[in-house]
What does this fold into?
Amino acid sequence: MKPVFEYTRGMLPEETTYCPGCTHGIAHRLIMEALDEKGLLGETIGVAPIGCSILAHHYMNIDMCESTHGRAPAIATGIRRVHPDKIVFTYQGDGDLASIGTGEIVHAAHRGERITSFFINNAIYGMTGGQMAPTSLLGQKTTTSMDGRMQELSGKPLRMAELIATIDGAVFVERVSLDSPGNVRKAKKAIRKAIEVQEKKLGFGFVEILSSCATNWGVTPVKALEWMRENMIPYYPLGNLKSPEEVK
Amino acid sequence: MSEKVLMKGNEAFAEAAIRSGCRYYFGYPITPQNEIPEYMSRELPKVGGSFVQAESELAAISMAYGGAVAGGRVFVSSSSPGIALMQEGFSFLCSTEIPLVILNVSRGGPGVGGIQPGQADYYQATRGGGNGDYHLIVFAPSSIQEAVDMMEMAFRVAEEYRNPVMILADGLIGQMMEPVVLPNPIPDAVREGILKAKPWALTGTKEGRPHNVVKSLYLKPEELENRIMEMDLKYQKAKEQLVRYETNRLEEAEVVLVAYGSTARIAEEAMELLAEEGIQAGLIRPISLWPFPYEAFDKIPEKVKAVISVELSRGQMMDDVKIGSKGRFPVGLSSRVGGILITPPEIAADVKKVLGVER
Ligand SMILES: Cc1ncc(C[n+]2csc(CCOP(=O)(O)OP(=O)(O)O)c2C)c(N)n1
It folds into this structure.
């Protein structure tokens, strides 16, 4: 009998430390499945960020290192120079990538580094307990914006995918969401394409993955997914912003 | 044997790094070391290596970590304010035990300071500007030749100890030209063996071994304490094995100068001036700044009237000179700062002041 579903060898048999309702685990699995399907698990080097997913290497069954806060794209750049033919990716949250690490992500894209950055946008700083991120929505209550994010004080949320798409070196940019099974499947497709961009040595790839943080948003796991649909997706439109002919 | 060539310090350092097997360099422009990234951008591609002009020193040190974590022999250089930005990476490289050679062609500070030579990064180099219990291993050459000869050793020590090694030079030896004998390039077979000797490096599992993980986070205090104690064992070993220094005329001395880098050469001229006036001065020249050669001070004869730290900073090394002197001698300071090189007559005058001689 042929099994209909098998757990990917890309994930180690560990119980994750992520909270109930957190989508980090789904994002991890999608990336590992995509690599596994392409037979690339043994050819991949990943860089984990500072953030809840610093422990991604507990779960991802590939060579990995931790990074300093926000510097993962620069670290991946160094790895890329030594291993021109491996698959190299960064996995980063929105505090890591869209705040302290803006310089590193913009310039990795600007140099057209042949790496992929998976950007987990959960509109909040998870690991440090729910502070405002550059991606927190207007009116969103966080521990550093108790009355809700105010435009006068903190500006409007940063749309990283759109920003990265303006940079010529970034050849593949897509925003996906993990709020529903249908969107999870689309996310997987985008991740596969982003990896293909790297296999074909086409340039920098960026996948923004809208994610949940039920704990710090102060809602139930089910409500968190609704909150993504009602609040995040309207402000962060899903879809492909850029894709080379070769992977269309 | 290699030929003798006339070379600018910075270019000689870069060439020595390449001959030592370095194939990866990441840097950001800053005076007085710009010749190094310029040289690397020209020369590394010719030997199959990589140069990346980083967007900042934060990125440069992170790229260096990436290159080294992937198993490469990596070199970075910068000058004082740029080295300040790299401190985040230094602490992280020490905690993850990743080898790297760092060159600081130091200039005057604090802040932006100036672009003339300085030695005011002594604390930064030996006490660490990053967080946590860690040490860089620090060597201070006093000539271009010594710097060039040190380079290959620096890579070997970094890899043996799995800890970054800093070569603390100053703008003077970076910018001056001297005849220098470059080392022979290490053989290709040795260079290729470097990666194989790093089983921890991230190279892809090929699904043939358990995954390699390089990490710095230890949430359980007991695990972190064990980690730190393991690192400390290395640092204790370094204190036994890596101390380097030179002494000059210590036995006859009535006063002892302590100086490193370019300043040691100036101090030697001051010793001649003092000898002409009948004052016998000796010299301790620390070559390793961390670990500091405290034991050299045990060789100072009891009759010595004072020990004087000669440095282009306001008594930073003097702290170590005091520790080494163990209260046996009064310790004085002779210094110029701000990018001004101290002169032999100024040192001689400071010595006479400390000795209380009007001659
Ligand atoms: C230099 C530095 N500054 C601050 C921190 C504290 N810190 C840890 S995780 C984090 C942000 C995490 O948020 P995000 O990137 O959104 O990832 P998440 O935890 O939500 O997945 C911060 C600020 C740190 N570890 N290092």
